[in-house]
Design a protein that fits this description.
Rossmann fold, about 200 residues
Length: about 200
């Protein structure tokens, strides 16, 4: 990918294809939904130049929000959150699961009224992003926006803050009981980071 802050949607998707990160099959997403396609951001973000380019491009999209900290959900959002924070010149924190809920640990903290951007790798239903927003708001921080490399929500992530993405991907997602792939007898695999 180019290292300029402006990446086209086509350039982002071409990188996913080139890195073997646009997978086809039968997948169980972190949301619990099933899909015939999966975007494995980790296969792209493991390459420092790709991660830096995505972070710079997202940083350019949100620069006017006057972000003071970037907060990401572990595990998928950590690398891109770090890169967006680097592009903006702010600190990067992550929330991680403890007893099934996202929390700040490892000495991370946010200040009351601190301007926070929540950054994810892929947004499908917006569930992890909303949980991360709630973590920030619970300590009084002001969430000024959310961003992701890929938006596969079809514009229905249901976030109550401005949302920015480098690319939108229209892969179908199904409730397990209505999944045509399950009806064909294939088993869904769970390639994402949230295993429980």
């Amino acid at each position: 990918m180019p290292t300029t802050p402006t990446l086209t949607e086509d350039a982002v998707l071409d990188t996913f294809r080139r890195r073997g990160a646009l997978l086809e099959g039968h997948f169980q997403l972190s949301s619990g939904l099933h899909s015939p396609g999966y975007l494995q951001c980790a296969l792209v973000l493991q390459h420092p130049r790709d991660a830096e380019a995505c972070g710079a491009a997202l940083g350019a999209l949100v620069r006017d929000l006057r972000v003071e900290a970037v907060l990401s959900p572990a595990l998928g959002g950590i690398v891109i959150g770090q890169e967006v924070a680097r592009a903006l010149g702010v600190r990067a924190l992550f929330a991680e699961r403890q007893n099934g809920a996202l929390v700040l640990r490892r000495g991370f903290s946010l200040q009351a009224a601190e301007r926070v951007l929540v950054v994810e790798d892929v947004v499908t239903t917006g569930g992890s992003t909303r949980e991360t927003i709630d973590v920030a708001r619970a300590v009084g921080a002001q969430v000024v926006g959310a961003a992701a490399v890929i938006d596969r929500s079809g514009g229905v992530q249901g976030l109550d803050v401005p949302f920015f993405a480098l690319a939108q991907v229209g892969l179908p997602a199904y409730e397990p009981a209505r999944c045509p792939l399950c009806a064909q007898g294939t088993q869904a695999v769970k390639p994402g980071s949230r295993q429980a």
